[in-house]
Amino acid sequence: MAPLQEEEPERRILSLGLWAGIGLVASAATVLAAFLLWPGRDATAPSVAPPLPEVPVASAPTTDEGAADPALAGVNVVRLRIGPDFPAAREAEILAALEAAGISGVRVEALPFKVASSRVGYYRADDLAAAEALGRLVTPVLAEAIGVRDYGKLLADPEPGRLDLWVES
What we know:
Low-confidence stretches: 43-50, 55-66
Number of helices: 3
CATH topology of the largest domain: Alpha-Beta Plaits
Number of domains: 2
Radius of gyration: 24 Å
Distance between the termini: 70 Å
Helix content: 25-40%
CATH class of the largest domain: Alpha Beta
Largest sheet: 5 strands, mixed
Number of strands: 5
Structural class: alpha/beta
CATH architecture of the largest domain: 2-Layer Sandwich
Mean pLDDT: 78
Strand content: 5-15%
Strand order of the largest sheet: 2-1-5-3-4
């Protein structure tokens, strides 16, 4: 019987460690869920940083009547970010306008929260002209002037030609 008494404390320590680990994971998951699902939180804006300035963009969709804006040539990827219950017809209309302008690398990202305001985000100074051109392109489709925001400080090494198109729900 002596060997059983020697092994029992080791089993208790192992069991205690396992339960402590499970509790730690559950606590971290709860905090993360509370942060992501906090009511009234505008998840489109960083929680610590001040609001980014919005730059108004002219409403002309093209440089010449019917000609695609040459600034869009450097666009590699557009992330179309839409909220829940976004109308499929409106999404299709936006995608058709982007495709007509020669932008084929569109990734639709359905977000679990409502987008507060429509805008184009860019990450590199070289992509500012493309962001403004994308704003002009989608302005008639969305029936509102679309501004641009510099998100350059949000990613350490953004890919060239990446634009984020946020569309208000």
